[in-house]
């Protein structure tokens, strides 16, 4: 028994030593040995081969359907106003035909709701060998099945233990490092060590996800005293961005492991964590953020204005609070490559543990990050218009669909204000048509 324990300890020591030398140590110095790049090239070749095998093994018509799966929609929507849709059908104050417009919009929402589908995983054009439950890809060939079985072994028996090891090291180093740095007096030395701990920990965590991150237009990186806003797909968005620079985080205080990390990091870095009761006080939140931005020596604030995770295909409504603070806004667009793994976190369906298990058993996390030119609020522009302008820029750069809907619809009912807006539009149309009809009758 003692020999078995000794052998197990030796293997465990060798495992940690190998992980430290090949991954952790290069992370500290911000260098790569090229292992992840080589792994990604092999993976791309394998997925391309699998796609060819699928296309060869199915019928011609199914192959055509496969190519267009991701782009097909059930309903072809015509984005016209209520008045344009009813043009030529009405002549007085009220027409029974007006009902058809609302019926049409209601059927469209029921058959293909453009909000709800943003909170489900992004559809893929081709199978990425991560699941056997997709109805589009049943049994094709023995060779493809063997490759899938090998892939399961690689992901669960080789990659998962390595990633769990690296994640443990990364989270542990962040908690211990920030706690120690937090004991130092405020000054340049403390700030420098805090940045070093955050960067090193984030780099280790990115490698724990087999992450390959491509940063574009680095000359536009957020600067101190500014506000960085980005679209939101996953909790790992924070790790993706911190891998290339340090930020002051803004968010709700949590319990559990997340709470331990928050309490440790805030000692070394001026993060802004709010209690649930404080989050409801918008004026208090705005006040604390303004105080942070006013100090040009503090790190840029990182905010996700959508307030919830969207499935990597769209950008939904930006809350205006982030754009009322003042100062310079640094927009950032984040786009994940879904071929290698689904980074989207559907928090209403999956807990954080099951989510992390899923992404840590995916092939890799491949992501593109674009730093957009900084912008400021223009004269005469209110916070909502400013937020929409920034949102549009992020959507264009990331190749994402821009939607006006509030991401809060993920868990809440439609606000009464949305219903009232439609009622107001209809009332205005009736009044205008009624006035036009009266003038026409007078002229006759």
Written account of the structure:
By secondary structure, this protein is α/β, with parallel strands linked by helices. The strands form 2 sheets. It has a 7-stranded mixed β-sheet with strand order 1-8-7-2-5-3-4. A two-stranded parallel ribbon has the order 6-9. It is built from 14 helices and 9 strands. The model is unreliable at 66-75 and 132-136 (pLDDT under 50).
The biggest sheet, with number of strands, parallel, antiparallel or mixed sense and barrel status, is: 7 strands, mixed
Query: SSE order, as H and E?
Result: HHHHHHHEEHEHEHHEEEHEHEH
Q: What oligomeric assembly is this protein in?
A: single chain
Number of strands: 9
- Rg on CA atoms, Å: 26 Å
Order of strands in the sheet with the most strands?
1-8-7-2-5-3-4
In whole angstroms, the N-to-C terminal distance is 107 Å
Shape: globular
Estimate the helix proportion, in percent: 40-55%
Spans where pLDDT lies below 50 across 5 or more residues: 66-75, 132-136
Number of helical segments with 4 or more residues: 14
Indicate the mean pLDDT.
77
Determine the structural class based on helices, strands and strand pairing.
alpha/beta
What's the short story on this structure?
By secondary structure, the chain is an alpha/beta fold.
Note the main attributes of this structure.
alpha/beta; seven-stranded mixed beta sheet; two-stranded parallel ribbon
């Amino acid at each position: 028994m003692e020999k078995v324990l000794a052998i197990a300890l030796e293997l465990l020591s060798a495992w940690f030593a190998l992980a430290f030398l090949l991954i952790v140590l290069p992370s500290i110095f911000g260098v790569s040995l090229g292992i992840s790049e080589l792994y990604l090239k092999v993976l791309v070749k394998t997925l391309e081969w699998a796609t060819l095998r699928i296309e060869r093994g199915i019928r011609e018509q199914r192959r055509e359907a496969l190519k267009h799966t991701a782009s097909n929609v059930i309903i072809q929507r015509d984005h016209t106003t209520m008045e344009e849709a009813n043009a030529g059908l009405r002549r007085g104050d009220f027409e029974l035909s007006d009902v058809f417009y609302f019926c049409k919009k209601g059927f469209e929402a029921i058959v293909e709701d453009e909000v709800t589908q943003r909170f489900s995983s992004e559809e893929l054009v081709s199978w990425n060998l991560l699941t056997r439950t997709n109805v589009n890809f049943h049994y094709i060939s023995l060779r493809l099945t063997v490759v899938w079985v090998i892939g399961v072994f690689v992901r669960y028996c080789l990659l998962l233990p390595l990633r769990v090891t690296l994640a443990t090291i990364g989270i542990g180093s962040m908690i211990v490092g920030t706690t120690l740095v937090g004991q130092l007096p405020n000054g340049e030395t403390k700030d420098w060590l805090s940045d070093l701990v955050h960067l090193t920990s984030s780099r280790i965590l990115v490698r724990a996800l087999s992450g390959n991150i491509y940063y574009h237009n680095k000359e536009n990186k957020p600067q101190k005293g500014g506000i960085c806003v980005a679209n939101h797909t996953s909790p790992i968005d924070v790790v993706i961005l911190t891998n290339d620079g340090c930020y002051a985080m803004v968010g709700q205080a949590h319990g559990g492991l997340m709470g331990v990390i928050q309490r440790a990091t805030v000692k070394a870095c001026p993060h802004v964590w709010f209690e649930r009761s404080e989050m409801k006080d918008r004026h208090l939140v705005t006040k604390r953020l303004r105080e942070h931005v006013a100090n040009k020596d503090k790190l840029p604030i990182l905010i996700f204005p959508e307030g919830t995770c969207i499935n990597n295909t769209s950008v939904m409504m930006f809350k205006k609070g982030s754009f009322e603070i003042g100062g310079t806004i640094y927009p950032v667009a984040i786009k994940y490559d879904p071929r290698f793994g689904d980074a989207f976190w559907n928090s209403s369906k999956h807990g954080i543990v099951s989510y992390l298990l899923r992404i840590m058993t995916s092939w890799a996390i491949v992501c593109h990050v674009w730093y957009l030119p900084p912008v400021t609020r223009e004269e005469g522009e209110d916070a909502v218009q400013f937020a929409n302008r920034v949102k549009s820029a992020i959507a264009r750069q990331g190749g994402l669909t821009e939607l006006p809907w509030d991401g809060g619809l993920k868990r809440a009912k439609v606000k009464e204000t949305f219903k009232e807006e439609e009622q107001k539009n209809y009332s205005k149309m009736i009044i205008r048509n009624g006035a036009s009809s009266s003038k026409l009758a007078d002229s006759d």
